Amino acid sequence: MSGFPGTAPSLADIEGMGRIAMQSIPWELRQHAHDVVIRVEDFPDEETEEEMELESPFDLLGLYRGVSVLHKSVSDPVPHVDMVFLYRRPILDLWCETNDDLLHIVRHVLIHEIGHHFGLSDEDMERLEEEADAAEATAGMADLPRA
Fold first, then answer.
1. Domains of the chain (ranges plus CATH)?
2. Torsion of CA 43, 44, 45, 49, to 10 degrees
3. Which end of the chain is more exposed for a tag (fewer CB within 10 A), N or C?
4. Which residue has the higher pLDDT, 5 or 21?
5. For position 140, what pLDDT does the model report?
C-alpha cells in the first residue's frame, strides 16, 4: 500500500487495514471470528512481553486474546470480548524490511492469530492465505476495464 508518502501509517490506518483485511479472509476462518474486535497498539504491553517471553517488543506482530468458540458457554458469568491485537511498530518494521504490501502483512497477521487460536496448522493457514490472495487477484481482474 503506498498511500503514506513521508509518514508512517497511524494506529487508525492500521486498524482500517485490519477491517479491510478481515473481509478478505476466507469465510472458512472468518465465520469463527465475526465478533472479534481488532485493536491496534504500537507495541505489546509489558505483561504480554513477559508472558510471551519476548526478547524485544518487535518480536510480536499480533496476538489473539479471547476464548475459542469451542470453549464459550452461555453460563459464563461475563461475556468475553475476543480481540486480535495488531502491533503497529513491529508490523511497520516488517513492512520496511520486506517491502511487501502492508495490507497483505496485516491480513497475514490476522490469519495467523485467528488460525492459531482455533488450532489450525501452519499448512491450513498457508492454504487460507493462498485462497485470500487468489480471491483478491480474481476481484482485481474483474475490476479491470474491458477493451
1. 11-67+80-142 (3.30.2010.20)
2. -130
3. C
4. 21
5. 58
* pTM confidence score: 0.82
Q: How many CA atoms lie within 13 A of 1 on its CB side?
A: 19
The dihedral of CA 26, 102, 33, 70: what is its sign?
Answer: positive
